[in-house]
């Protein structure tokens, strides 16, 4: 799959991951009574595992590794780095740009794009690096 197609698939998978994350958090808090923080840990792990599996199957099918556990660990680590870039971009813009402070959704969008770009690059070049399967 060409890079543009992979980026589109990665974005669609990320959207699915967001929905899984939100639904899992709702269930964890409402049904399991986990609270905000433990519920978020659970929902993140479920969403990250879902997006790893979907990206493995659809986005980076030809590049996936046979070492699933280490690939999953690399995916979690890569997404944590992207998450820090996302939040850092948001925080920097809110702190330095009055327009963004007044309309924080601009910072959320900028952070999301920065995190998406980094997560895609890390996933493409570091996580799913197994090469063609035989």
Helix and strand topology:
Elements: H1 3-30, H2 36-59, H3 68-96, H4 98-102, H5 105-127
Helix pairs in contact: 1-2, 2-3, 3-5
What does this structure look like?
The chain has two domains: 1-64, no CATH class; 65-129, no CATH class. By secondary structure, it is mostly helical. The protein has helices at 3-30, 36-59, 68-96, 98-102, 105-127. The chain has five helices and no strands.
Share of residues in strands: under 5%
Query: N-to-C SSE series?
Result: HHHHH
Can you tell me the number of structural domains?
2
State the distance separating the first and last CA atoms: 17 Å
Instruction: Indicate the structural class.
Output: mainly alpha
Average residue pLDDT: 91
Computed over alpha carbons, the radius of gyration is 16 Å
Unreliable stretches covering 5 or more consecutive residues: none
- What global shape is seen? globular
Portion of residues within helices:
over 70%
Q: Major sheet: size, sense and barrel closure?
A: none
Please, how many helices?
A: 5
Number of strands: 0
Q: In a few lines, what is going on in this structure?
A:
The chain is mostly helical and 134 residues long. Helices cover 81% and strands 0% of the residues.
Overview features:
mainly alpha, 134 residues
């Amino acid at each position: 799959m060409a890079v543009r197609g992979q980026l589109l698939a990665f974005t669609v998978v990320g959207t699915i991951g967001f929905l899984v994350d939100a639904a899992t958090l709702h269930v964890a808090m409402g049904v399991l009574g986990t609270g905000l923080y433990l519920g978020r840990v659970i929902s993140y792990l479920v969403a990250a595992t879902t997006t790893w599996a979907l990206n493995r199957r659809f986005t980076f099918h030809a590049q996936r590794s046979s070492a699933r556990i280490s690939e999953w660990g690399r995916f979690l680590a890569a997404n944590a780095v992207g998450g820090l870039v996302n939040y850092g971009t948001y925080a920097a813009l809110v702190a330095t740009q009055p327009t963004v402070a007044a309309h924080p959704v601009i910072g959320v969008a900028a952070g999301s794009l920065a995190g998406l770009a980094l997560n895609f690059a890390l996933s493409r070049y570091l996580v799913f690096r197994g090469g063609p399967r035989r």
